[in-house]
C-alpha cells in the first residue's frame, strides 16, 4: 500500500487505522483514506455475507432436489446403506493395507527402474546404441500394452510355466507387472526432464572439467528430477489406484473385499466405501503435489537458483 | 456447445434447470405389478405363450459366457444340452413357449443378479437363492439342490483332508459372489485369507499352478473339473449344508417381475412330474456323491 503524497493531514484524525506506514514517523492517515478503508471493509463483509447466503441456498436446493427426487429411497438403500457400510469398512481397510504395501514397494522399484531406463535412453556415444534401442523398445512396448493384459499374462500366465525358483504368489507377480508398466511411464517422465535441461548446462559442466558421468550426476539429473516432481507424483497417484488390479490373481485388496460383500448381498454400498477410502488416500497426495508445484513456481518466479 | 453464460443469474438458472432435469431423469421405472405368487392364482394369469415378456411372443433367457459344463454343453446354451439348458427349455415349454420362441442372451454372472432393469425374462446361471439377494431380485422356486465341494490336486496336503478342521491351515480359493466363497469364510474359517477370483477359470488355473491348495465349487462343477479339465485333481469331499437348509439354485427374475409367479409355477410342476429328477439323472448323474466333510 502506498500512501499518496500531498494529502493534507487534518488535525485530530486518529491514526489508528490498520495500515502500513512506519510507526512513529508522524504519519497520520487522511480522512479520505480512512473513509476508503471503511468502505473496503464494508464491501468485503458484504461479499462474505453474499457468498455464505448463496452457498446456503445452493446447499438447500441440492438437498431438496436430491431427497425429493423419485428414486432417492432406492438409491439410498442400494448405495448408502449404513448397515453394509459398517460391515464393509473394516474389511475394505484390511484390503487397503495390501494396496498401500504394493504402492510403497512398487513405487520405489518404479522410480529406480524408470531412472535407469531414462539414463540408458539419453546416453551419448555410438557404443551405447543397442542400449538406447533396447530402452526405447521397452518404453514403447510397456506404455502401449494395456495394463490389464500385462497383469493377466504375468499373474495368470507365468505360474503356468512352472519355472524353477519363480514365485507363484499373485501379489508378487502383480507387483512385478505394475512395476514393468509404470517404470515405462516414469522413464519417459525422467527422460523429458533430462532433455529439458539446457545443453549449456552440460557444456558448462564439461568445460569445468567434469566427466560426462559427473556432469549427469551433479548438474543434469538434479535439475531434471526437480522439474519433474509434479508429473511423477501424478504417476504415483495413478499407480496407487491401479494396485487394486492385482486382485486378478485372487489376492484380496480393498476393491475385491468390497466385491465379495457386493456379490453376496447385491448391495453396492461396499463399492462406495472402497471408492471413498481410495479418494481419502489420494487427496493428501494430490494436495502435496499441488504444494510442491506451487513452491517450485514461486522459487522460479523469484529467480531462485535452479 | 453452449454459448458462454454471461451473467451469474443466467448461469444459476441454467444450473437449476440442469439439476431439475437430472432429478426428473433419474426417476425410477415404475415397478412391475406385484406378481401373483401362489401357483393357484398364477395358473389363471399364466396364459400359455402369452406372458408379458420382454419381446412379445418370445421368451428371453440369459446365462453367462462361457457357459460351463455340465450345466451347458459346448458353450452353446441354445442346443438344449446340459442340465440348465434342458431345464430352461422345459420351463419354457411349461409356459407355452416352444424351442423356436426361446431367445438366449449372454449376461455375466455378477450382472445377472445385480439390481436394476433386466434385459431378459429370466436368467439361469447357477445362482443360489438367499434371503439377502431376494431384496434385490426375484427368484423362482429352486430347480436344483446344490452342495459345495472341495477340489485339490492329487497327492497334495489338501487331498488328504477328511474333515473341515483339516482345511483350516490351507490356502483356499473360490469365485467372488458365490456361496462357495461363503462356505470358506463361514464354515472352514481358514487361518489364511482365502483367494477370491473373478471367474472359476482363474480359480482352476490357480489350483493347477499351485497358487492355492484347494478350491471350492458346487458339486456337479467339481465332478466336471476333476473329470475333464484338471484331471490331476480330485474331489476331497463335500460340505454339509450351512444352517441345515438345503441350498438351491433358482431362476433369476427382475425384482417384482410379472413372470415370477408363472415361472415358479412351471418349476414346481416340473419337480412334481419328475422332469427335474429325470434331467438331473441325464446330465448330472455322476455328481451323486462325495465324502462329506464334517
Automatic annotation (TrEMBL), chain A:
Annotated region described as Disordered, given as residue ranges: 1-28
Annotated compartments: Cell membrane
Protein name (database record): ABC transporter permease subunit
Pfam family of the protein (one): BPD_transp_1
Recorded GO MF terms: transmembrane transporter activity
GO terms classed as biological process: amino acid transport
InterPro entries: AA_ABC_transptr_permease_3TM (IPR010065), ArtM/GltK/GlnP/TcyL/YhdX-like (IPR043429), MetI-like (IPR000515), MetI-like_sf (IPR035906)
Gene Ontology, cellular component aspect: ATP-binding cassette (ABC) transporter complex
Keywords: Amino-acid transport, Cell membrane, Membrane, Transmembrane, Transmembrane helix, Transport
Residues in ABC transmembrane type-1 domain copies: 96-289
Topology of this chain in the membrane: Multi-pass membrane protein
Source organism: Streptomyces broussonetiae
Family: Belongs to the binding-protein-dependent transport system permease family. HisMQ subfamily.
Ranges annotated as spanning the membrane: 47-69, 100-120, 141-161, 268-288
TrEMBL record, chain B:
Pfam families in the cross-refs: SBP_bac_3
GO CC terms: membrane
Ionotropic glutamate receptor C-terminal domain: residues covered: 58-286
Keyword Cell membrane found: no
GO molecular function terms listed in the Swiss-Prot or TrEMBL record: ligand-gated monoatomic ion channel activity
Record keyword Signal present: yes
Protein name, per record: Transporter substrate-binding domain-containing protein
Organism: Streptomyces broussonetiae
Amino acid at each position: 500500500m502506498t500512501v499518496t503524497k500531498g494529502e493534507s493531514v487534518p488535525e485530530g484524525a486518529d491514526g489508528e487505522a490498520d495500515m502500513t506506514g512506519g510507526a512513529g514517523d508522524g504519519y497520520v492517515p487522511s480522512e479520505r483514506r480512512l473513509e476508503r478503508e471503511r468502505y473496503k471493509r464494508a464491501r468485503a463483509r458484504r461479499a462474505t455475507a453474499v457468498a455464505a447466503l448463496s452457498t446456503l441456498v445452493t446447499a438447500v436446493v441440492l438437498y431438496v432436489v436430491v431427497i425429493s427426487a423419485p428414486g432417492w429411497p432406492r438409491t439410498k438403500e442400494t448405495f448408502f446403506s449404513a448397515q453394509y457400510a459398517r460391515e464393509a469398512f473394516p474389511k475394505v481397510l484390511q484390503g487397503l493395507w495390501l494396496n498401500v504395501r504394493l504402492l510403497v514397494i512398487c513405487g520405489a522399484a518404479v522410480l529406480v527402474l524408470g531412472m535407469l531406463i531414462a539414463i540408458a535412453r539419453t546416453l551419448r556415444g555410438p557404443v551405447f546404441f543397442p542400449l538406447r534401442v533396447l530402452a526405447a523398445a521397452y518404453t514403447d512396448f510397456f506404455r502401449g500394452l494395456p495394463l490389464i493384459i500385462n497383469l493377466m499374462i504375468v499373474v495368470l500366465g507365468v505360474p503356468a510355466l512352472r519355472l524353477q525358483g519363480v514365485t507363484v504368489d499373485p501379489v508378487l507377480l502383480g507387483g512385478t507387472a505394475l512395476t514393468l508398466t509404470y517404470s515405462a511411464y516414469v522413464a519417459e517422465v525422467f527422460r523429458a526432464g533430462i532433455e529439458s535441461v539446457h545443453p549449456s548446462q552440460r557444456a558448462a559442466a564439461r568445460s569445468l572439467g567434469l566427466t560426462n558421468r559427473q556432469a549427469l550426476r551433479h548438474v543434469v539429473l538434479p535439475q531434471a528430477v526437480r522439474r519433474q516432481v509434479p508429473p511423477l507424483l501424478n504417476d504415483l497417484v495413478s499407480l496407487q489406484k491401479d494396485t487394486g488390479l492385482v486382485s486378478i490373481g485372487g489376492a484380496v485388496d480393498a476393491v475385491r473385499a468390497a466385491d465379495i460383500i457386493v456379490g453376496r448381498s447385491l448391495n453396492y454400498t461396499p463399492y462406495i466405501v472402497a471408492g471413498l477410502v481410495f479418494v481419502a488416500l489420494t487427496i493428501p497426495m494430490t494436495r502435496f503435489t499441488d504444494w510442491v508445484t506451487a513452491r517450485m513456481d514461486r522459487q522460479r518466479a523469484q529467480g531462485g537458483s535452479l | 456447445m453452449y454459448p458462454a453464460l454471461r451473467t451469474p443469474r443466467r448461469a444459476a438458472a441454467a444450473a437449476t434447470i440442469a439439476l431439475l432435469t437430472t432429478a426428473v431423469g433419474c426417476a425410477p421405472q415404475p415397478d412391475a405389478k406385484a406378481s401373483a405368487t401362489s401357483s393357484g392364482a398364477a395358473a389363471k394369469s399364466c396364459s400359455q405363450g402369452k406372458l408379458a415378456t420382454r419381446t412379445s411372443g418370445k421368451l428371453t433367457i440369459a446365462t453367462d459366457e462361457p457357459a460351463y459344463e455340465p450345466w451347458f454343453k459346448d458353450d452353446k446354451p441354445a442346443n438344449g444340452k446340459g442340465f440348465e439348458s434342458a431345464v430352461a427349455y422345459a420351463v419354457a415349454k411349461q409356459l407355452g413357449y416352444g424351442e423356436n420362441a426361446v431367445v438366449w442372451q449372454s449376461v455375466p454372472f455378477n450382472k445377472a443378479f445385480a439390481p436394476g432393469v433386466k434385459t431378459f425374462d429370466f436368467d439361469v446361471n447357477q445362482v443360489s437363492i438367499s434371503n439377502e439377494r431376494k431384496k434385490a431380485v426375484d427368484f423362482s422356486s429352486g430347480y436344483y439342490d446344490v452342495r459345495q465341494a472341495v477340489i485339490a490336486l492329487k497327492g497334495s496336503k489338501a487331498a488328504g483332508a477328511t474333515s473341515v478342521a483339516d482345511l483350516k491351515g490351507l490356502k483356499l480359493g473360490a469365485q467372488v459372489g458365490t456361496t462357495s466363497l461363503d462356505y470358506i469364510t463361514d464354515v472352514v474359517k481358514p487361518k489364511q485369507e482365502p483367494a477370491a477370483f473373478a471367474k472359476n477359470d482363474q480359480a482352476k488355473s490357480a489350483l493347477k499352478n499351485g497358487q492355492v491348495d484347494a478350491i471350492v465349487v458346487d458339486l456337479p462343477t467339481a465332478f466336471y473339473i476333476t473329470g475333464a479339465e484338471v484331471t490331476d485333481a480330485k474331489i476331497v469331499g463335500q460340505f454339509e449344508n450351512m444352517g441345515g437348509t438345503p441350498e438351491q439354485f433358482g431362476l433369476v427374475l427382475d425384482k417384482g417381475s410379472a413372470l415370477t409367479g408363472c415361472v415358479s409355477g412351471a418349476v414346481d410342476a416340473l419337480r412334481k412330474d419328475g422332469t427335474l429328477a429325470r434331467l438331473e439323472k441325464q446330465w448330472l448323474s455322476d455328481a451323486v456323491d462325495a465324502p462329506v466333510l464334517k
